[in-house]
Amino acid sequence: MKILRPGACPLIPGLLAVALVLCGQALLRAQQDGAMLPTGRHVERILPEEKNPFGQKVQVKEEALVVEEETEETRLRKLLGDMPIRGVVQSGDACVMMLGPMTLREGIILPNLLPRQTERVKVLKITETEAIFGFVDRDGRADVRTLPRRVDLAPEVRYLIPSKIPGTADPASSNDLGGVITQGSDGPPFR
Description:
The protein is of the alpha+beta class. The chain has 2 helices and 6 strands, in the order ααββββββ.
């Protein structure tokens, strides 16, 4: 690559001079027409009772965009709502609950459940039918933002084995497990 020194190409100064002359002539013509000067513009008078389209901006109605932002509180609510309750024990006036891998008592602050968790969660109340968690505010109150959790320790049937297998006379003889689980007429219905 060859670097040109100033004055090495005699055409460049000539081209610049022609460009300046042409641009200058265009500016002079625009000034003479009055397009560049404020006095040369057409003034439009608008009466006070007429609507001025340039006076106020048109207010555009914005649709409220519903954006669900997953905050730390919503993640904690989901996590606490999904943890299985393993058991509740009443001992005297207090209840103790097994929630997932944790043993909970009233008044304790839960350990951090999320990485870099800043929200603190306190166990407000535990009964045999309900547990209430509260998110601790800056002033130390935990009763404003609460998360109630219903306790239901009733057994649930996940798989129902049919009482008769089609094509066999005795379902118990074809079953290697030693029998078939059936719903008795006197027992509660399966859930």
